[in-house]
Amino acid sequence: MKLLVTGGAGYIGSHMVRTLGEKGHDIVVYDNLSSGHRESLLYGRLVVADLADRETLRILLQEENFDAVIHFAAFIAVEESVKDPVKYYRNNFSNALNLIEACVRHGVDKFIFSSTAAVYGMPEKMPVTEGIPLLPINPYGSSKMMTELALRDIAQVTGLRYVALRYFNVAGADPQTRIGQRYKEATHLITLALRTALGLRESLNIFGTDYATPDGTCIRDYIHVDDLIDAHLAALGYLAEGGRSQVFNCGYGKGYSVREVVDMAKRVTGIDFPVKETGRRAGDPPALIADSSRIRKDLGWQPSHDELEFIIQSAWDWEKKRLALNL
Ligand code: UFG
Q1: What phi and psi values does residue 215 have, to the nearest 5 degrees?
Q2: Domain 189-220+253-324: assigned CATH number
Q3: Nearest-angstrom CA–CA distance, 327 and 314
Q4: Would you say 213 and 287 are in contact if contact means Cβ atoms under 8 Å apart?
Q5: Cβ count within 10 A of residue 201
Q6: How would CATH label the architecture of 2-171+222-250?
Q7: 95: Cβ below 6 Å to ligand 1?
Q8: What is the pTM (predicted TM-score) of this model?
Q9: Which of 73, 212, 214, 233 is the residue whose CA sits 20 to 30 A from 33?
Q10: Is 21 exposed, middle or buried (0-12, 13-18, 19+ CB in 10 A)?
Q11: What is the reported pLDDT for 283?
Q12: What is the pLDDT of residues 14-34, one digit of tens each?
């Protein structure tokens, strides 16, 4: 297939490009390199441009006959989205709309969208099914939800069909350690734990120990990035076979507490790094676990790396390499 991958130079996007390239697809990556890296691209041709640039988008989609678009490019920091909502609505919604509009105009009829569990907000019932009301509690989640709604409405009146994948907690790296997370300012638990183990940070904070969970810390559903990539491949096949527009949770349906993640990070690294128990971080739901039965049933998706130890081990191998090569 001929594919356009936005944000293909980023963390998850670069894993997608790797897999698509290995499978022989023809890939164009569209990335403004605001957080992505040219060196993360193992395949494909890179167009360095912003999704705000409608003229570049128009020319690209007019000239190339893409079979599908996979749209990763977005900002992802929840806290930043609270401080600068315009930035999030502009990029994650308005720029996404530019892309969707260009697809409709130029006859690209298959669209895969990176959505998030943040669209659910603070759901009470676990695991979370796709059908519950969307009640995001921060601009990041709202901006992603708005793009989902735009896709839904646009698909109703055009030939566009889409799959929105709601990611839970994505972690881990390429098992061959060619690529991985390259954020200088990480905010994610596993990355921060490993960087603390490497001595790059003084200690790891545990944000809140008084949640109504078995050990008092928050519970999340961690999914290895390569299983998430498999979900995209399955979605692509589904749309190629004429599947109707649909939304799928991407998680294993299994939760780990912050303490369990910290313990596993200590075990994998063999380093008893310093940990501090601090107050809650604003906006953290106590638990977020996917009901992944829909994607398993409809797309036949089955995870291959459904083990916290494997996820952390692959992230650890990458973090060590990143430090050694100063990436
Ligand atoms: N945590 C800590 N210490 C840290 C970092 C995180 O205790 O230094 C805790 C958080 O409070 C949370 C858990 O670890 O309970 C996981 O936090 P992450 O920041 O790794 O991930 P989130 O669950 O906050 O975020 C993920 C995705 C977001 C998405 C969100 C939906 O990364 O894109 O789920 O809630 F919006």
Answers
A1: -110, 10
A2: 3.90.25.10
A3: 16
A4: yes
A5: 16
A6: 3-Layer(aba) Sandwich (3.40)
A7: no
A8: 0.98
A9: 233
A10: middle
A11: 82
A12: 999 999 999 999 999 999 999
Whether the CB-CB separation of 18 and 43 falls below 8 Å is answered with yes
Q: Give 113-133 pLDDT, tens digit per residue.
A: 999 999 999 999 999 999 999
Ligand 1 pocket: which of 119, 188, 225, 263 to mutate (most atoms within 8 A of CB): 188
**Residue 282: per-residue pLDDT:** 85
The preferred substitution site among 148, 185, 187, 189 for testing ligand 1, maximizing ligand atoms within 8 Å of CB, is 189
Q: N- to C-terminal Cα distance for the chain?
A: 32
| Extended beta strands in the chain, E state | 2-6, 26-31, 45-48, 68-71, 110-116, 161-167, 169-171, 204-207, 219-220, 222-224, 246-250, 256-257, 275-278, 287-288
Residue 169 has pLDDT above 90, yes or no: yes
Domain boundaries, the chain: 2-171+222-250, 189-220+253-324
Closest residue CA from atom 5 of ligand 1: 189
Given this model, what pLDDT does residue 184 score?
85
pLDDT tens digit string along 229-267?
Answer: 999 999 999 999 999 999 999 999 999 999 999 999 999
How far is ligand 1, taken at its centre, from the CA of residue 27, in Å?
31
Classify burial at 49, counting beta carbons within 10 Å of its beta carbon; exposed 0-12, middle 13-18, buried 19 or more: middle
